[in-house]
Design brief:
Helices cover 61% and strands 0% of the residues. It has 38 helices and two strands. The protein has a two-stranded antiparallel ribbon with strand order 1-2. A hairpin with a 2-residue loop joins strand 1 and strand 2. Helix 14 packs antiparallel against helix 15.
């Protein structure tokens, strides 16, 4: 065993070469209310006093554990040859030289970097003093680390020599060291009386703390020793006590101290319990462990920690320590130094975290109440500090210190699990452990997310300088951008760390943000009454934010048990698109309602004046189309992404408004049936009647009527033929502009970069179907109404009331053609060229129909002979020539098409009466099957004139001016000559 007493000087040591503690003023770091679990262990002793007491215990423990006794060398000899030998011959543990040839096992076990940290500036290799090489030993290193002077060290060692000489072979744990030191050291051993008295008071206060304040065993209330001991201490604080061997006061003190210190559960007196009570022993041990930190930089653990810890562990017997308490105390020291030195050395945090894992294992195996109490106190401090950062980790951690976050989170989770387990005095199952970690981490995520969200919202609300900018973005729109950035930053930086304990860390984060933003959005939406740029921007930003958040949540939950359903269920949709759609629909409804009101109001004031503009359509059409176009343009300027979805609603509304305009435009204008005269009851003409006088009177009356009828209907000029032509033009203009609107809409859709523009163009969109159909129908109706109004209403005096009344030769078609030509000129010059042919064709059809009505249903005032047929056919030719107009009018094919019926009926007027009667009888028998030649059923009037239709033949017979026809009609149907 002799080898362990040798000095093992190694030149590679870079530790202290000076033996006087440096007068270093350590930087002061805020400990942020980090409460030490040992702070009340010795309230009457300062840190420096406790440090000196701890050093005394350490030296005594090292002396006691060695096999070679300490020897004393006088100060004069030490000064003569300092380098030749130490002042005292220490125990092997103190005497051992420092070695740094091997990496620290302790650092390796704690996961700390070895040899890579910054070194102390006072270190160096062996220093030569003269020709002698000085070697630094573990004892000297510890002395310097604990800031103990050489004079104090020498005094302690002298006292220990004296104690050893007086109590040979007695171990340190079997004596009360302060009591023995009080006995051995006198005032002469100190530089001054004041120092001696202070030293004496310190030892007495240490005894008070160990025996009275924190005794190893509870004190009995009936025991008088504590009270007597307390009185001695109080007296000593005022006047030093005599500590000589034969001093009565010293004997009384020894008796009281030993009676208190030698108590034990089993009655054994082999060990003195004077400094092993909780938490005094841990406080002293904490001070000893602090020697493991560089005296010049307390954030650095010395490289010689293995040797120093080996030395410190020799105090376990005195302090009542064991490996579990060592781990617990060392955990606190590492953590405390990390916080106290400004959290600059992550190695300390990492080591504390690893050591906490060992403490967790220890906590499972012990049920000691003192251990549990200290454990709870330490973990509460650690957990409180860690949670203060984790509950707002966005403020505490960033890219520069993110590596420390995992250790902080681990400290918090493990500490929380240990405390939960300890509180129920049983170790929870692994599932419960995961639940504790899961719950804690989720709480941190939600708390920090809510705090950060609130900070961002507050910052935006207070940023009034945005208000002066042109078109500033609303706060919630800017907030959505910030939250999106926060979410992706969370996913990249923090979620990977938290995922160790919570598989859906990113999902929880975005779900929390989703909820926070959703609350603000609800308030915003509740105040929206109409579509505004701000509302669209906010809802669009919210929709984009939600999609980003859901994407993160879904991506984070791919491998989870429930596929992320729990997180997604926690994110009820904002339904921003639906809200936007509702607002846009409301906007559309408002525009459509306004347009409808405008149509109703302005159409009542429209005069349909052909001279309103050169295009000769109504100004109201221009205005209504302008409103429709502006509405479409405003719709596409809305900052939304759902134009294709909502466009059909808008187009449908506009379509119905235009349809309403079209329907009102043609409303009241009449139809073909409106202007057709009522056919008189079937009768026969008055043969041989003379109407010369009557016709003369009629002509003056007819001329007067004609003058009043042209262009008017009962005095209402808005329905005259020119006005009807303007209405036709108006519908044609609307019809053409609908095509322009559709093309422009497709272009606007494509400009919005949507994929449905071609669908709209290809007819998948609704377009303006109702309006287009209404225009076609309206143009058809108005053209027909114009034609039949002109022929049967405005020109009834020369057609229905004048043509062939009386003798055919004196009432030919010329007056009708003259006035009809005027109307054709009006229509031709007024109606749009695309509709002109149709309008004139309808006039032609009405004229042909009117010509036939005069011939077949003209009543008893008209009578035709066989000789009249030639004039009638000539008149019809004049009528067709008017529309052909020498090739400048209607196409001959069109004229032939619509004149077929007339040309089929006209030959009947040159057919002799007997043939007509025979043909009538034959057709009637075929149709009605009668065999009685004297009685035939009266064929109904169908209005579909045809040379082989009985009613047509009957009407030709009715207007035939001869006796044969009259007799047949009288005999067969008893038709009257007059009505």
């Amino acid at each position: 065993m002799s080898h362990i007493f040798r000095d093992k000087a190694l030149g590679n040591s870079k530790r202290h070469t000076q033996i006087t503690p440096p007068a270093v003023v350590m930087p002061s770091y805020p400990i942020e209310d980090l409460q030490s679990p040992f702070s009340d262990a010795a309230p009457s002793l300062s840190d420096s006093e406790l440090r000196e007491s701890a050093y005394e215990i350490l030296i005594g423990a090292c002396r006691s554990s060695g096999s070679r006794p300490l020897t004393y060398i006088p100060q004069s000899e030490r000064n003569a040859d300092r380098a030749s030998a130490p002042a005292l011959t220490p125990s092997p543990s103190l005497q051992r030289s420092l070695t740094s040839t091997a990496a620290s096992k302790v650092k390796k076990a704690l996961g700390m970097k070895s040899g890579s940290t910054k070194r102390r500036s006072d270190g160096g290799e062996s220093v030569m003093e003269g020709k002698t090489k000085k070697t630094v030993t573990v004892g000297e290193l510890v002395r310097v680390q604990m800031r103990v002077s050489e004079q104090t060290d020498s005094r302690i060692r002298r006292a220990l020599l004296r104690i050893a000489a007086a109590q040979l072979g007695r171990r340190i744990e079997s004596m009360v060291l302060p009591l023995e030191l009080l006995q051995q050291l006198k005032s002469l051993d100190f530089p001054s009386q004041q120092e001696y008295e202070a030293w004496q008071r310190r030892n007495l206060k240490l005894l008070e703390a160990g025996l009275l304040l924190h005794p190893h065993l509870p004190l009995h209330k009936t025991d008088s020793a504590p009270r007597q001991f307390q009185q001695i201490i109080r007296g000593a604080l005022e006047k030093p006590i005599e500590t000589g061997k034969n001093s009565e006061s010293m004997q009384v003190l020894r008796s009281l101290v030993m009676s208190l210190a030698c108590r034990s559960f089993d009655g054994s007196t082999e060990k003195c319990h004077w400094v092993d009570g909780f938490p005094l022993n841990l406080r002293i041990y904490q001070i000893l462990l602090e020697a493991c930190f560089d005296v010049n930089d307390e954030s650095i653990v010395i490289e010689e920690i293995d040797e120093v810890l080996e030395l410190i562990k020799k105090t376990w017997a005195v302090l009542g320590m064991n490996q579990m308490l060592h781990s617990l105390c060392f955990l606190w020291v590492l953590f405390h130094h990390y916080v106290a030195t400004g959290q600059v050395e992550d190695d300390l945090l990492f080591a504390a975290n690893n050591l906490l894992m060992e403490v967790e294992k220890d906590a499972k195996t012990t049920k000691d109440s003192d251990y549990s109490k200290i454990l709870s106190s330490i973990l509460s401090s650690i957990l409180g500090w860690a949670e203060k950062r984790l509950l707002t980790y966005h403020d505490s951690f960033h890219s520069d210190n993110i590596e420390s976050m995992q250790s902080v989170a681990s400290l918090a989770v493990v500490a929380a699990k240990i405390m939960v387990e300890d509180s129920f005095h049983e170790y929870r199952s692994k599932r419960k452990e995961v639940d504790v970690a899961h719950e804690r981490i989720e709480n941190y995520i939600r708390s920090s997310m809510r705090t950060t969200f609130g900070q961002k919202l507050k910052k935006l609300n207070s940023s009034k300088h945005f208000r002066h900018q042109q078109n500033p973005l609303p706060v919630l729109s800017l907030l959505a951008q910030d939250i999106t950035e926060l979410a992706f930053n969370e996913k990249a930086m923090f979620s990977p760390i938290f995922k160790r304990w919570h598989p859906l860390a990113a999902g929880v984060a975005v779900a929390t943000l989703h909820s926070c933003y959703g609350n603000e959005l609800k308030q915003f939406v509740s105040n929206i009454s109409e579509l505004t740029p701000d509302s669209i921007q906010v809802l669009s930003a919210a929709d984009k934010l939600e999609k980003d958040l859901v994407q993160i949540a879904v991506g984070d939950s791919v491998d989870s048990e429930d596929g992320g359903k729990s997180i997604i269920q926690e994110m009820p949709p904002y339904e921003a698109e639906a809200l936007i759609a509702d607002l846009v629909k409301s906007w559309i409804k408002t525009r459509i309602d306004r347009l409808k009101e405008w149509v109703d109001r302005n159409l009542q004031q429209e005069v349909w004046n052909p001279r309103a503009n050169k295009e000769r359509f109504a100004p109201s059409a221009v205005e209504v189309l302008r409103i429709v176009d502006e509405t479409l343009e405003a719709f596409f300027l809305l900052p939304i992404t759902m134009h294709p979805t909502l466009l059909p609603d808008l187009v449908t509304g506009l379509d119905r408004s235009l349809q309403n305009y079209i329907l009102k435009t043609k409303s009241g204008c009449g139809t073909r049936s409106t202007f057709l005269p009522t056919l008189p009851a079937l009768t026969r003409c008055t043969a041989g009647s003379k109407f010369h006088v009557f016709r003369k009177k009629e002509k003056s009356h007819v001329a007067q009527r004609r003058k009043s009828q042209v262009g008017s209907t009962n005095g209402d000029t808005s329905f005259g033929v020119p006005q009807l032509c303007v209405r036709v033009n108006t519908l044609q203009h609307v019809r053409m502009q609908l095509e322009v609107l559709e093309k422009r809409t497709v272009v606007q859709l494509r400009n919005c970069r949507v994929s449905h523009a071609d669908d709209f163009a290809n007819g998948l969109g609704k377009k303006f179907e109702l309006s287009a159909a209404a225009c076609v129908e309206g143009i058809q109706q108005l053209c027909e109404a114009t034609a039949y109004k002109a022929v049967f209403h405005d020109l009834s005096h020369v057609l229905w009331d004048g043509l062939y009344v009386g003798e055919v030769s004196s009432s030919r078609i010329e007056p009708f053609l003259q006035e009809l030509e005027q109307y054709l000129e009006i229509i031709s010059s007024t109606v749009h060229d695309r509709v002109r042919t149709r309008a004139i064709t309808d006039v032609m059809k009405a004229s042909f129909e009117g010509f036939l009505l005069v011939l077949l249903a003209g009543g008893p005032s008209r009578a035709f002979t066989l000789h009249d047929s030639e004039m009638i056919e000539d008149d019809f030719k004049f009528l067709t020539d008017l529309f052909w107009s020498n090739g400048d009018g209607l196409p001959i094919e069109l004229i032939d098409k619509f004149s077929t019926t007339v040309k089929g009926v006209l030959p009947l007027f040159r057919t002799d009466t007997e043939s007509l009667i025979e043909r009538f009888r034959s057709l009637t028998q075929e149709s009605y099957g009668t065999s009685d030649k004297s009685r035939f059923p009266l064929p109904p009037t169908s209005g579909q004139w045809n040379p082989i239709e009985p009613n047509t033949l009957l009407r030709v017979l009715c207007c035939r001016s001869d006796e044969t026809a009259a007799k047949f009609l009288k005999k067969t149907y008893n038709l009257p000559k007059k009505l």
